[in-house]
Amino acid sequence: MASSNLTSVTEFIFLGLSSRPELQVWLFLLFLMIYLMILLGNLIIVLLIAMSTSLHTPMYFFITNLSIIEVCYTSCVLPQMLGHFFAKRKSISYVCCVTQVYSFLSFGIAECYILSVMAYDRYIAIRDPLRYSVTMNRSVCAGLVFLSWMGGFVGSMVATVATFQLSFYRDNVINHFLCEMPSLFLLSCTDTSRAELTSQVICIFTLVCPVIFITFSYAHIIKIVLRIRSAQGRRKSFSTCSSHLLVVILFFVTVMSLYMRPKSLYSPEKDKIVTVFYVAFTPILNPFIYSLRNKEVKIALMKFLGKTRDT
What we know:
Elements lengths: L10 E4 L9 H28 L6 H18 L2 H7 L6 E3 H34 L4 H4 L2 H27 L8 E2 L6 H7 L5 H34 L4 H29 L8 H25 L2 H16 L1
Parallel strand pairs: 1-3
Antiparallel strand pairs: 1-2
Helix pairs in contact: 1-2, 1-3, 1-10, 2-4, 2-10, 4-6, 4-8, 4-9, 6-8, 8-9, 9-10
């Protein structure tokens, strides 16, 4: 801890996911397996899409970016978390904490926007399939992805600056396994109202607005699909959207329950569970929910495996 009330902290100490020594090995093995599966699943998706010309479509271009984001933002947390399972002193320097908050938020916000873009892509594909390739051309797709990434970087910069303008003098113990804004607000010895307001404004633009946009997109999609006369046509249209909708629900519900709940409902232990869910379990499900169950991806995977065996 800081040596006096007039000395700013130079590092933070995590209490970690669990303080029970007998669980550390099992938790390490569990999260190591999860992290390796996240890396393997998402990298396989990226490679398959890059190598298969049949997957060079706007939808899979967005899925590629989603997979890259998943790898990046889990890598901001899980490697450090794995190392701390066996560390007697779970510390992180002030500079590394700033870096973790910025990078973690950058990729998280970018994912919110990418999921919104994917909802728009599905809406265009179902509303006007004959003009889909013209409307969602390469320059449009690249522009939407660029804006999503830039939105993540800018939004994260604003949130990080607002958070670390606070002063941390007396306490440097974080009851968590990563540096996250709600936990840091509790440690500050200065007024956090401005930082919390900034955080809420950013949440409106990065969580509430995307959710509203996605909801309206799917409302229009459902109206269009219900007009399709054949049951097979309706099933095919719904199947192209169901995977994306499931990913959206899993991601946004968990993130919003953490960043948009009243301060009076703060619970360190519950927050750890929620964070584990969207940091580890949602990313591990995405490749299977969104890609590996798709017929086109399965065909590309079989072709890739066939080429590998031939060589």
